[in-house]
Amino acid sequence: MLSSITIILGIAAIAASADIPAGIRPGNATNTTSSALNPFGTGFLLSNSSSGYVYNATGNLTSPEPRPYTPSGGLANNGSVPNYHPLTDFDYESLLLVLYQEFIELDLFEFGLSTFSVGDFQRAGLDANDRALIEFMAEQERGHTMLIENILGPSAINSCNYTYPFTTVVDFVNFCSKVTRWGESGVYGFLEHLDSRASAQLLLQTVTTEARQEMIFRQFEGLFPMPVWFQTGITQSMAWTLLAPYISGCSRDSPRVAWQNFPALNITNNPNPAALNATSPSNATLSTASSPAPFSNATGLPGSNFTFVPAIASNRTGFTSPGNVLQLAGEFPGKPVGPNSSYTTNSSAGAPRFAAWISQLNTTYTVLENVVNGTNGWTATTRQPGDTIWPNVSEPIVNGSMFIVATDANISVTPYNISELNSHVVAGPAVYLAG
Ligand SMILES: *[C@@H]1O[C@H](CO)[C@@H](O)[C@H](O)[C@H]1NC(C)=O
Ligand SMILES: *[C@@H]1O[C@H](CO)[C@@H](O)[C@H](O)[C@H]1NC(C)=O
Ligand SMILES: *[C@@H]1O[C@H](CO)[C@@H](O)[C@H](O)[C@H]1NC(C)=O
Ligand SMILES: *[C@@H]1O[C@H](CO)[C@@H](O)[C@H](O)[C@H]1NC(C)=O
Ligand SMILES: *[C@@H]1O[C@H](CO)[C@@H](O)[C@H](O)[C@H]1NC(C)=O
Ligand SMILES: *[C@@H]1O[C@H](CO)[C@@H](O)[C@H](O)[C@H]1NC(C)=O
Ligand SMILES: *[C@@H]1O[C@H](CO)[C@@H](O)[C@H](O)[C@H]1NC(C)=O
Ligand SMILES: *[C@@H]1O[C@H](CO)[C@@H](O)[C@H](O)[C@H]1NC(C)=O
Ligand SMILES: *[C@@H]1O[C@H](CO)[C@@H](O)[C@H](O)[C@H]1NC(C)=O
Ligand SMILES: *[C@@H]1O[C@H](CO)[C@@H](O)[C@H](O)[C@H]1NC(C)=O
Ligand SMILES: *[C@@H]1O[C@H](CO)[C@@H](O)[C@H](O)[C@H]1NC(C)=O
Ligand SMILES: CC(=O)N[C@H]1CO[C@H](CO)[C@@H](O)[C@@H]1O
């Protein structure tokens, strides 16, 4: 009950700042109603009576303070000793998923460093300092796996074997930016739902580091470091769907992940940030991105055509636009995936009808067109939406690397109840590199 109010108060804090556009200024009404699925739907809430709990935000304290300078309320701030341990299956399974994620990152960063030569990195515009930074990121992952292992206790997994979809430094960096993106978003999707608030605290301090890694890999790609206002969250099943295909084998006594493996969704014309023209379809997929050497003149940038070299920031704040046609390919359920192929993709949804664009605070839908069923899957097209985060603001919903899911319905979800989407997922997510 308390939690249903958290998001509204969080948004209230945003609204308190002076430069919020008029469209989302708080109204004065105190009896605003909204559906549970769409608290943003009818404008701004100053108080919420839908759950039976009411807090009237007047700007003044409404209750006596339990201790000096300590406004009443809040969770577990009464002096109780923190218990950094899962309290429920939900907690355990969420943290187990994170451990699988941290282990692949550790392996991935080390693999890249040991696979590619100094010259390979140099041709991608990355020098000894950059390699040292990747090595430090691997060390961070060592710390993260130790932390989660300590929280989970003796049943925690060990490192597994992995399979990676890259053969060049450029594609390695691109893959790292995507892995850290879903690692980050996968945690944001459940962090506030954990029963163990103490574990959530430690995980928060972990995932904020991961967020910095994601940004650094974007900078290694010459992309604008952070082209969004809000980092989005996805569900555990969505994160597991993205992660599992790259885990080839784990020791047989590894605890199983309880989350769903949705059928894979591919964006066959996903932009390639390394290509001269990122949205040119002929060089669009991760696999073909390996052929050109776009950074071959990176160190001699002046006079070169290749402007997309590693940079703190670049002027590429987005290279896709509303109306862009995405070509999607979805698999049918029933395919073995994940460690030792011991998981099977599954969907409880009907036929593919919509693309859900999960980005920033928003889940926005577009219609799937030209849906064609094949032997192992289906294909469809859809168009990039042009919505902005709020009316009257410039920031588009779709930017950065974000998530696209094929669904059978366009139900209304917001960041705190995005798991309502799980039962409607036909395939995906896929990571769309919008900018
Ligand atoms: C709220 O009340 C104030 C003072 O009465 C008024 O100036 C303002 O326009 C009202 N805002 C809205 C959104 O109704
Ligand atoms: C509450 O909302 C309803 C529906 O919008 C409106 O008709 C009514 O006047 C409001 N009541 C108060 C006290 O503002
Ligand atoms: C909130 O305000 C309403 C209307 O003034 C009042 O009836 C209610 O008791 C208040 N609730 C709390 C918790 O102060
Ligand atoms: C807040 O407190 C001040 C000082 O006691 C009082 O003057 C004011 O009316 C209060 N405002 C509200 C909205 O209760
Ligand atoms: C990883 O692969 C190696 C080499 O094939 C194999 O010996 C080892 O058992 C595998 N480990 C796991 C955990 O699957
Ligand atoms: C796109 O790929 C084709 C075929 O691999 C290659 O010849 C061409 O140079 C690439 N173009 C760009 C802009 O990378
Ligand atoms: C990049 O490729 C897209 C898709 O083919 C095309 O529409 C666009 O004009 C190209 N941009 C440039 C600068 O060549
Ligand atoms: C830049 O591209 C143009 C067109 O492809 C080409 O003619 C020119 O030689 C290139 N310049 C350099 C410095 O590579
Ligand atoms: C780009 O690199 C190639 C191969 O090293 C070299 O021949 C060419 O002169 C370079 N071009 C520029 C503009 O530096
Ligand atoms: C950045 O891009 C915008 C839009 O294309 C352009 O107007 C601006 O001059 C560019 N700025 C720099 C520093 O290149
Ligand atoms: C999606 O891409 C992966 C990797 O390239 C490939 O193995 C798989 O067959 C593709 N699935 C569909 C439905 O295109
Ligand atoms: C929560 C949120 O940001 N919702 C927005 C989603 O996008 C539509 C269309 O731009 C907005 O109207 C919503 O406010």
Topology at a glance:
Blueprint: H1 2-15, H2 89-115, H3 118-123, H4 128-152, E1 161-162, H5 169-188, H6 197-220, H7 236-243, E2 247-249, E3 265-267, E4 325-331, E5 336-337, E6 343-344, E7 354-359, E8 362-367, E9 369-373, E10 377-383, E11 401-407, E12 425-433
Antiparallel strand pairs: 1-2, 3-4, 4-10, 5-6, 7-8, 7-11, 9-10, 11-12
Helix pairs in contact: 2-4, 2-5, 2-7, 4-6, 5-6, 5-7
This protein binds 2-acetamido-2-deoxy-beta-D-glucopyranose (12 copies).
Protein name: Protein rds1
Signal peptide: 1-17
Keywords: Signal
Describe it for me?
By secondary structure, the protein is of the alpha+beta class. The chain has three domains: 1-75, no CATH class; 89-249, Ferritin (Up-down Bundle), CATH 1.20.1260.10; 265-433, no CATH class. It contains seven helices and twelve strands. It has helices spanning 2-15, 89-115, 118-123, 128-152, 169-188, 197-220, 236-243, and strands spanning 161-162, 247-249, 265-267, 325-331, 336-337, 343-344, 354-359, 362-367, 369-373, 377-383, 401-407, 425-433. The strands form four sheets. It has a four-stranded antiparallel β-sheet, with no helix packed on it. Strands 8-7-11-12 form a four-stranded antiparallel β-sheet, with helices on one face. The radius of gyration is 22 Å and the shape is globular. The two termini are 38 Å apart. Mean pLDDT is 83; it is low at 1-50 and 281-307. Residues 1-17 form the signal peptide. This is Protein rds1. It comes from Lipomyces starkeyi NRRL Y-11557.
